[in-house]
What does this fold into?
Amino acid sequence: MKRVFVAVSLMLSVSAFAQTADTTAVKEDGPKVKQLENEKIDEYRRSSLYSVLVKHSNANYGETIDSVFMMMETPDKFNDHDLAVKSFESSNAKSKKVKESVRGTEKDPNIKDIGAFMDANDVAREMVAKWFDRDPQTGYFDVDLITERGYYDASWKSIEEADANVRGRAMLADAGFDLIGKTFMIVNDITFIDHGENSAKASAGIKAGLSILGAIGSAVTGDNSFQELGDSSGELIGTIANEIAGYKVNIISYLYRLDWNEEMLDRFLTEYWIDESNPDPAKKAAFEASDLFTMSYVGYTMTSAQNVSSKSFSKKPLQEQFLKVCTRALDKAIVELQREYDEFKIKVPIYAVNDDGTVSVKIGLKEGVTEGSSYEVLMKDMSSGVVQYKRVGMLKPVAGKIWDNRFGALEEAEMLEADRKEAEAEAAGSGAGTEQGSEALAQATADEAAETAGLEEGNPYLDSSTFEIVSGAGNIMPGLLVREVKIK
It folds into this structure.
């Protein structure tokens, strides 16, 4: 009876995430809002993600891609579950195009390489080891990371040691349902189509051709003005190069999930668990030789991102430009995978319920929010003894109030504004009536139009997106979780 009471007490002591812990505040330029306390904003259970790169070291910018990928941070809606090895070399050295019918199958070179990578690095076992803070020297495990990511309170530590088994199994059963079983690996094959390089090659060809034509024309006619065709080709070539400069990022992302269930938990605790109070060299060796832990392939997606930014940003170091475009491409890939596979979807807490009946959530374009998106509101349910979620309402984004939280979006908006002002100043200095002034003014107008279009899609000056309550108004409060509904 005592052990049952301990287990029940543990479940009741699990932090249910302060769904009603809110405060009323007044925004400087807005109505009163009921919002989540600042320290509670990030207290929700995330899926965990391990990001890996397929390297093409001999390809153009291969080393740059590798270094940029290592700089990229885990998306903030996931827990960082990276292992020591973050990349591997592709066997498809020449990056030969793979037929669409083969992509994602056992004949896909990437699928073969990923399998070999997981086997060579014991990826599944190492993921489990990370969950339990395994000390590689002693083999000891603990539950500190699970306690931290699951937002359990500390009361379980005060329960007497004799009940550790019941306590641990109760907590780990819950963690397995909502934490360990939501551990993913995403493997990214990134390639670049560098229009700038292509334009440079094209420019060289154009220049050579024009020079030859100019020389021939002068020789035949005796008119040296033909030679000027070749000599003045630089300006023409520069214009052509600028029109097609930049590059496109193509990314193929493969998603895998760590397998975890009650049977694996039982075997883990029985056959492998050791800690400082209970060392066992045989169990340590057994874990290191275990093939119990596996990964399941979920699916893949293909997407791209274009380097279309301000002329100010085009002057930035190439690595900085790559970082921006690569990060945005990976964010898009994650959104596509979430829309295709429900198990990979993120849940994010409602930040504020406003007096005008709208709801604020700290997600935006990076998470794929559009005017056509639809989100369900979820309430945590502990009645079964483990964390589950039930739908209590629906939300829809408000047009014009979607946050552009993509990587570098605010900087980009500020650069566009600076470019526009510079172009307007040039137009004013040149005289709007002159040819040069008209061109400068046209450029300023074009930049302003591009900026306006960007703000219609998403506004980088916001700090959250605003949603209309479609249903369940009486049940919606700060702290409840939202999740995108699959688009049909």
Remarks:
- The mean pLDDT is 78.
- The chain has 14 helices and 14 strands.
- The first helix runs from residue 2 to 13.
- The two ends are 50 Å apart (CA to CA).
